[in-house]
Amino acid sequence: MPEARGPDFVEAIARGLEVITAFGTRGQSLSLADLSAATGLARPTVRRILLTLAELDYVRSEDGVFSLTPRVLDLGMAYVSASDIWELVRPRLVTLSEQTGESCSLAQLVGSDIVYVARAAVPKLVTLSVTIGTRFPAVATSLGKVLLASLGPAELDRVLDTPSQSGVVPTWQPSRDEVDAALREVRAAGWALTDQQLGPAIRSIAAPVRDGSGRAVAAVNVNVHAAETDLETLVERHLPRLLTTASEISADWVRWESRPLAVVS
């Protein structure tokens, strides 16, 4: 767990969130020992956290094994609902998916991972399952490369020094020089491509979504199966549609940011 960075840091909340996220990286049902090992927290501490989460109905236990309840979805949906991200981008993602016949997603950067916040999926054989809230190491994904390429040098160093919380070990294990070279290519092109760097048969292309200041606030991609779609098709057929969609979502985002907010008196 990171050290507290300020006097108002509430360690108990941080530990509780760490226990919740451990389920996503280790499995659906975990013992007290599993969670202690996953978080590095002492068993008595983990036990108190689990009992608290159980009273709040975020966790259930049976025969000494703990699992999350559907109420945990409220935590993620609170973000999606508050930001209106899904309603904002859903029509664009659905259209892009229909145009390409492929799954399309929107993700944002959290630490050194990307987190999927919106998705229009088509039934395809995939090697890694993706749902809203799924995390992957950013550096091995097209979405992540786009977002990493937008960072300044100091912020990029900080992000790349942050361990992934995804629990996924990507196929591509680059040196820092290789990462820097890849990100230079992304900055020059304005979009990113990955070919089985996250996992076997996963090929994707991504472009940035920008706010009114030009900052990359998210990235949108088209994901394909390498056995079905070659790189030429991905770049020549899907990329133009992807860039158009990214531009449309960026314009939607700017309008959303500029919307008048209701004043409660």
Structure description:
There is one protein chain. The chain has 265 residues and is α+β, with helices and mostly antiparallel strands. The chain is built from nine helices and nine strands. It has helices at 11-26, 32-39, 43-55, 73-83, 85-100, 142-149, 153-160, 176-189, 231-257; strands at residues 29-31, 59-62, 65-68, 103-110, 113-120, 135-137, 192-195, 202-210, 216-225. It has a six-stranded antiparallel β-sheet. A three-stranded antiparallel β-sheet has the order 1-3-2. It is globular and about 55 Å long. The mean pLDDT is 88.
Short précis:
With 265 residues, the protein is an alpha+beta fold. It has 9 helices and 9 strands. A hairpin with a 2-residue loop joins strand 2 and strand 3.
What topology emerges from the helices and strands here?
Elements: H1 11-26, E1 29-31, H2 32-39, H3 43-55, E2 59-62, E3 65-68, H4 73-83, H5 85-100, E4 103-110, E5 113-120, E6 135-137, H6 142-149, H7 153-160, H8 176-189, E7 192-195, E8 202-210, E9 216-225, H9 231-257
Antiparallel strand pairs: 1-3, 2-3, 4-5, 4-9, 5-6, 7-8, 8-9
Helix pairs in contact: 1-2, 1-3, 5-9, 6-8
